[in-house]
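Page 42, continued from yesterday. The earlier attempt failed because a stray header line got pasted into the input along with the sequence. Redoing it now with the clean sequence only.
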Amino acid sequence: MATVRDLLKGRENRAIWSLTPDMTVLDALKAMAEHNVGAMPVLDGDRLLGVFSERDYARKIILRGRHSNQTPVRDVMTREVVTVTMDTPLDHCMRLMSEQHIRHLPVVEDGRLVSHFSIRDLMQWVIDTQKQQINHLQDYIEGGGYVR
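This time it went through. Structure tokens are written below.
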């Protein structure tokens, strides 16, 4: 059974873009736009404090008439974050994302954020894996033998 470790293989040294709890929501939005992401983890060192997302901005700033240039991220971030580990099966991740209506999963080990991924990353992995399986089956059917 495939795990988060399989999904993240080759991305071990990829930078983790993050926010700090003291930065303003406006600065957080600028960072998210710069990296073209819809959510970013909020860290104290390497400890995950929460996640700030476009949804948090819409629901907790815009709809409440707050000012993004005066509100710190800590006041509007999602604190109860659903997390996974490197050994979490990918089918469990898919189920979590579907049931919890979330698009991003932080990966933690010993309370430290070690990576994160989105539903887009997960779907791309599924598509790539299915393509490989289809190619293997085509090779087998066409008489090329089963090649691993």
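Notes: The chain has a mean pLDDT of 91.
Reminder to self: strip header lines before submitting.
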